[in-house]
């Protein structure tokens, strides 16, 4: 399926949550922030200038109101975000120690986990350049998983390209089920954005090249294997490219992969080719690690262009 040359909106569906982040080890009071991979992705895309729309739900509570305010402030279309009076908005906590950042969640039974295929609006793919799908959405409930597959079906029927990030979270579902769902989704996606850690767990392959071979065997088309500070191994049009990482003084990698996805899709929707969009997204993700939390450090285009121009 050809990727669009013209601009269009980026659509995603899933769960956003309020984040409480312990900005440094031992800090007594965590800072309130926002998170959720699909929300992070759309905010990142919006900050790069792309039109975006979200399919989600929040509780009829203060946290839900905060999220709606965030999206409106960031320019994310919230017409398809429901307010559920019978469920709560999800919350999670981030702590930091010598081994990195750790997550704890209060999301069972959340409003967004109650999403189902019937919640997809009829006009969802009007004027849409990309559908972004996350493995976390597929993992939070069976109905949300069904909604993601229905969105994929509709997108393919409308020839809307699909970008998929498995974003593996084994606290949400067992590896065997995750592998089966991911493999099925990979075969339907046009763009696979996957971290090296997730690829290693899902494919059981020992090296990046072998991971890539397995993913291509599953039917992957264009693959972006994200390797953190090592950059990105890109498979596109039958060839491989390595996009080097950027040396930055990272303090918190929360949401860096989501920033990558949003920046990448925004650049594709604006007319960049896959390689140029990957280079841009790689720089944006690096910059997003310079602050704490998933949303606040997402950079603007001027900052990304500055890093790319510096060669850093």
Describe, in plain words, how this protein is organized in 3D:
It is a single chain. With 312 residues, this protein is an alpha/beta fold. It has one domain (9-14, 36-88, 115-299): UDP-N-acetylmuramoyl-L-alanine:D-glutamate ligase (3-Layer(aba) Sandwich), CATH 3.40.1190. Helices cover 37% and strands 25% of the residues. It has 10 helices and 13 strands. It has helices at 37-47, 62-74, 135-140, 142-157, 175-186, 196-203, 208-217, 256-269, 274-288, 301-310; strands spanning 9-13, 17-21, 31-35, 52-59, 76-84, 90-97, 100-106, 128-134, 162-165, 191-195, 222-226, 232-236, 239-243. It has a 9-stranded mixed sheet with strand order 5-4-1-8-9-10-11-12-13, sandwiched between helices. The chain has a 4-stranded mixed sheet with strand order 3-2-6-7. Helix 2 links the parallel strand 4 and strand 5 (76-84). Helix 1 (37-47) packs across helix 8 and helix 8 runs antiparallel to helix 9. The protein is globular and about 50 Å long.
Q: What low-confidence regions span 5 or more consecutive residues with pLDDT below 50?
A: none
First-last Cα distance: 34 Å
Report strand order across the widest sheet: 5-4-1-8-9-10-11-12-13
- The tally of strands reads 13
The number of helical runs is 10
Question: What order do the SSEs take from the amino end to the carboxyl end, as H and E?
Answer: EEEHEHEEEEHHEHEHHEEEHHH
């Amino acid at each position: 399926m050809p990727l669009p040359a013209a601009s269009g909106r980026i659509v995603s569906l899933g769960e956003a949550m309020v984040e409480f982040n312990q900005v440094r080890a031992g800090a007594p009071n965590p800072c309130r922030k926002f998170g959720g991979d699909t929300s992070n992705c759309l905010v990142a895309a919006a900050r790069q200038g792309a039109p975006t729309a979200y399919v989600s739900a929040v509780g009829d509570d203060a946290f839900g109101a905060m999220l709606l305010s965030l999206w409106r402030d960031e320019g994310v279309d919230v017409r398809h975000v429901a307010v559920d009076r019978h469920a709560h908005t999800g919350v999670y906590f981030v702590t930091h120690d010598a081994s990195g950042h750790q997550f704890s969640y209060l999301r069972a039974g959340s409003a967004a986990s109650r999403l189902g295929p019937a919640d997809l609006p009829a006009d969802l793919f009007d004027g849409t350049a990309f559908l972004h799908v996350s493995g976390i959405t597929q993992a939070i409930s069976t109905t949300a998983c069904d909604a993601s597959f229905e969105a994929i079906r509709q997108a393919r029927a409308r020839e809307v390209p699909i970008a998929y990030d498995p974003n593996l979270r084994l606290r949400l579902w067992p590896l065997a089920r995750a592998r089966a769902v991911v493999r099925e989704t990979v075969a339907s996606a046009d763009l696979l954005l996957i971290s090296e850690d997730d690829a290693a767990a899902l494919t059981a392959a020992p090296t990046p090249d072998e991971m890539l071979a397995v993913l291509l065997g599953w039917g992957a088309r264009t693959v972006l294997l994200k390797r953190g500070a090592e950059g990105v191994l890109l498979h596109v049009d039958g060839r491989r490219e390595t996009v080097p990482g950027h040396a930055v003084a990272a303090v918190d990698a929360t949401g860096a992969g989501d920033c990558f996805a949003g920046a990448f899709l925004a650049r594709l929707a604006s007319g960049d080719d896959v390689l140029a969009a990957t280079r841009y997204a790689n720089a944006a993700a690096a910059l997003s690690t310079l602050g704490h939390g998933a949303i606040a450090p997402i950079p603007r285009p001027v900052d990304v262009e500055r890093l790319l121009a510096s060669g850093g």
